[in-house]
Amino acid sequence: MSFNLFQFGEEAPVLIIKEFIILPVAFGRLTLNYGKNTGESITLIEKEFWNDDNWMNKILIVLPLTADEFDRFQTSDMKKKRLVVENQIGTSVKINKLLARSNPKPHFQIFMTGLGRIRVKSLRHVGEYYKVRYNHEDPKLDVNNLPNSVKQFQTEAQKFIKSIRTTLSSRTSRQLYTTIRATPPELYPDLLASFLELDFSDKLDLLRAIELEKRFQIFINIYQKKAQLIPHEKRSTDNFPLTVLRKYGNFDDIDNFSRQPSPTKQPRDVMSKLRDRLEAGNLPPHAREAAEMELLKLEKIQSHNPEYHVSLRYLEFLLDLPWSKSTKDSVDVKKARLDLDADHYGMDKLKKRILEYLAVQSLKNDLRGPILCFVGPPGVGKTSIAKAIADTLGRKFHRISLGGVADQAEIRGHRRTYIGSLPGRILQGIKSVGVNNPVILLDEVDKLNRGVQGDPAGALLEVLDPEQNHSFVDHYLGITFDLSTVLFICTVNMTHTIPPALRDRLELIEVPGYTQEEKVEIAQRYLIPKQLKKHGLETQHLNIPSNSTQILIANYTREAGVRELERQIATVCRAVAVRIAEARVDESVETFNLDSVAIEEILGPTIFEHDIAERVSRPGTATGLAWTSFGGEILFVEVSKMNGSGKLTLTGNLGDVMKESAQLALNWIKSNLASYRLEWEPSTTDIHIHFPAGAVGKDGPSAGVTILTAIVSLLSKQPVEPDLAMTGEITLRGMVLPVGGIKEKVLGAHRAGIKKVMMPSKNRKSLFEIPKSLQSQIQFVFVSNIPEVIQIAFNGRVKPISKL
Ligand SMILES: Nc1ncnc2c1ncn2[C@@H]1O[C@H](COP(=O)(O)OP(=O)(O)OP(=O)(O)O)[C@@H](O)[C@H]1O
Questions:
Q1: EC annotation (predicted)?
Q2: Cys bridge to 745: 105, 155, 452, 625, which one at CB 3.0-4.6 A?
Q3: Residues facing residue 443 across a β-bridge
Q4: Of 122, 149, 163, 702, which one is the catalytic site residue?
């Protein structure tokens, strides 16, 4: 995946949704049913919120589209999807409550509060849903220079509020006034509109009105249009607004608004509360001094001054930080061993290293030491084992995803002089867990980007360096905060993209992909019980025998880890939950046995077919093995020739090293044409080599033997042996050199149904990494030069003349 260096703004998951709007400062409730068209939204909510302990602190973007735009989005490719959503206006929201229900059919209920308008800058597909980068679109109202529409609005709004008030209890009406006072004036149209039953198009006009003059005018038009719908004689009576007032449900929710201070009057109790907190908090001297200074400054600023809010937010953040709150460690290596074994199958090497680490640190009575970094494909349990470490130590856990971060301010905060400045993610995380010694997982450190906004890896170095991190300065906070008691753990998918200076500080520990047998064990022991519990099912409700788990793994997933498998098991559990909920009426609930027929009924026909033999049945194609950040995978190489002038064309998003391998292969063949009796006139023939799946970037020298085999296959008109996959680097003189990632490649080959793997002789020693169960299912052949490659790839059907 590549990132544009010039993408600014924050990133958050996005719910792209047809004709549903939540306005800033409004409450909204959204019901998401499990259905064909809601798969992406459901996965988003499950992964980003339901399965994440930190969901309360996350931002969701709700992006409303018209029916027309939505259809266009659904039916187009990624490029066109981007055109549909980029530059659109949406709302950033905070989810207040999330309910998963299975009655009458499975659905999520999401209760949320709109925070502000945003403009989408760019769209990114992450697995099965989308994320957007966005900018805030919050122009402020200049109170000294009000546009005309705002003045007109003030009169209309007063009428409106007065009439609403008569229909409300005195308590609710007080709350309403508090809410209005607490809302910045530029958001008044949104606030009042949230009390009206509005059409989608009216709401959309209002949402998309960034310019304030226009926004106020739109509200006035909407309000007046609503008023005209009411018969004249009723209009003058006080109950007019009731007829247009939305049935708002729980009016008490309005209380939640009142967390902001009044923009027109400086509430005295805000100051005294802050002072009380300052006195009660056990702040170190330098933080106390900074807080006192800020408090003095705040007392002097009028509350309608924009500076007031900036200063108040800063002070609240400073006081919220857990300067002296920490949890007590319980480092007990025996217990840690049991805890890790209790939720994680296998992973012996990793567990051993973690226990050693804990043992050493407990002897030193200090958890400072090398920074552990777990390396492996997605879904192999890197995050969940880090969480288990936190649990066994009795520490709080916080995860920070760094994928695609290109701005050092994400780590170290913005200086307060910036409008909308925020603290960095490290301190935000520490604030959210409420203690200063959590385990912080820095996820996807290998996907940090260097952007125009500074180098985030440099900032991270400071965070991780034990020499420096006791006096870490976040630009927003402006004073030092001691990070030395935080236990940092990093995860990466691949090592070569970790910024080099950072790699130096990390102790890399490999977490490899799983074999089919290991996956069955993980599913039977952990994933199935976990999902049953999550869906409110008992073991007597659903039986998944291990041969059915095998079918799920082989036919419905293709991954190195077990994340997709867990998702498929969750789908099965949901389907069974529905059956049980429906069956309850006549009270007979039998154990549901998941056999192959039931699997197909619930999950549909097999997703992955083993079609390799068919793909390589024609001359000119060969199957290679590649190592990617998702684990090992098979990779096809296709070659064709045409009349021309001896040109070589390479397609399929290749890196330079891979292009060089192709050139090497071709040159070796040119110099050995005669001895293999290959039909080719280089000066009048063009050769085209293509690597399918052009969207995925490919590089490295290990495809050399595969490219060579595919070309020989084309020129000799002989198909390559079916069920054979290969890897190895070639040299111009015909040698085959060893390559890396053998274990992942072999696991990938096995997943794809390959029966025979050809690899360089020098890689023979890598076989010890491969589980015994796999060694008996795959035949390994070793080669040290190109003639041997050709001999094995064609099973003796292509031979050099000299050996005839
Ligand atoms: N060995 C294992 N035993 C039990 N459960 C496992 C094991 N490995 C993975 N899992 C489960 O698989 C799921 C996915 O794991 P997790 O999210 O930790 O993967 P990850 O390696 O961190 O992936 P990513 O790199 O995408 O963040 C979790 O529910 C985890 O508990």
A1: 3.4.21.-
A2: 625
A3: 401
A4: 702
